[in-house]
Amino acid sequence: MSQAVGSLKRRIETVLEDFKRARTTWHEISTDGFSTANALVNATIQSRYVDEPGYWHPALLQEFPNVVHAYHKKMQWIIHQHHDKLTSISQKMRKQYDKMRQQFMEIQAISKRLVDLQGEEYVQTVPLYKTCPMIVYVNRMEAIVSMYTNAMGTVDMLLGEKGMLNVKSREEGLTLLSTWMNHPSINDSVINEFEDLLKVEIYEKAA
């Protein structure tokens, strides 16, 4: 029995390390994608010049009657390129998010296995390593995965028709870019508390 529990504990440690790696990679991909998001917002705003008669000098329009149409066509192509690139970036973020979900489901499965081996009270009250029972790890991971679920929903919104493709002003663009950069649904303090807990419970060896 104790050998089975020890094996599960080692597996938990591996899953938690993978969970941190997926989160770190998710944020690295998001940060790398900011320049593309910025380019998309700027291109969308610039495309609005087509609708501003004052932007086009009458002499230019007289000399080149198709200039507005050509400009519009060019800007739509640029927007499409940036949007495709940012969509690809978001798909890479989703792959990391999917890993987080799978890792959480494995932790849930391990928790159920511990119930089978040791009983419900063990999972709820008995320290798994030093002070925290298994249920603490399950609940903390669930809360963190929920944050990234909401963050991916926000990313989808930013890439949708009502997001960066529909920016009408620089102020609105800055708001959307700030949302991409900061991911307001992700509470860093909650994640840091979980990392501190793991450090104390698992990674710091007793003297």
TrEMBL record:
Q: Which domain of life is it from?
A: Eukaryota
| Protein name, per record | Uncharacterized protein
**Organism, per UniProt?**
Circinella minor
